Amino acid sequence: KLDGADFLLTGTGNTKGEVELTATVSNGKLHNILRLFKNSLMTEKYSKLVKDIAATSGNMDVKINLKGKIDNYEDETFLSRLTPSGNFNFKNNNITLNNKISVKNLKGELDFGQKQYGDFEFKLNNSKVNAKFSSKDGLDKIISGNNIDIESLISSEKFEFSDIISELSKVEQYNFLKSLSNIDFYTKFNIKSQGLISINNFDLSKLKNKGYILGLNSEKNKNIKFKSGIIKLNNENLFFDNFILNALDGNLQIKGTINKFLNNHPNPDIIVNLNNINLKALENLNSKIKLNDGTIKTGKIEVKGDNIKLNSISMNYQSMPVFINANLRDI
Fold first, then answer.
1. C-alpha radius of gyration, the chain, whole number
2. Nearest to residue 96, comparing CAs of 40, 36, 30, 147?
3. Strand partners, 246
């Protein structure tokens, strides 16, 4: 037994110094396994791969194979010179990162060694997500901080917008997103990615992306309902193809592109057509907004780079007719 889990260690060696060991843990507690992974001579140099995990729960199965050649069997550090490979089998685990973002009900397998492969299912709050990834680069190249070539697929059949907002808002730099937590909107998405990435510089903007985001309607949709259209993802660019929402008691039609949306300074070129928008209903999306009664009958908002243009906004505000044309620069 190892911390209450079934543990089996087998191995072979010969006079040439060729060694192969296999350690198997069945139904072990994830936090105990991670502690061993961080502190064991077998895997100590790979501990940076799990350094951002703050808390865990649940059990898992682990199989680790260590293979290599040593000069002296009496050297107590010989384990650190063996090359590991193996498999992690997650069993409905919960994981919280140092930045407080967490996933629940993690199931699936991770194969690691000379090649890496993972196939997972998990929940982000209440939304179920499926994710796969693979890389032909080995563990040593990963921990060195060099770029590795990775392919991934992430998808969800029903994802609630507020779930990602509530998780991201836990991160200090994204606290401002809490103001959007009342937005009820569901999507279906499928995104494939491929490219070079490093654990020292996890820059998603370097990946080649391809996929789509569709709006869904649900009985929980209170503030926003999907009407038609699609959002297409191509590398760093989001394309809004006649994306129409029923929102704020009226309609929003979004057309255009957000270029380099994964960049620190995205470049939008978007037109939002407005029809019968109830300004008072904005309070349902953000409790900090306080407005008097008013309705935008027609008009459009054009966003291009750092500039916003209010174009032919025709509205009633507190029973007064208002017509607006305006340019806001360097927002």
1. 26
2. 30
3. 225, 251
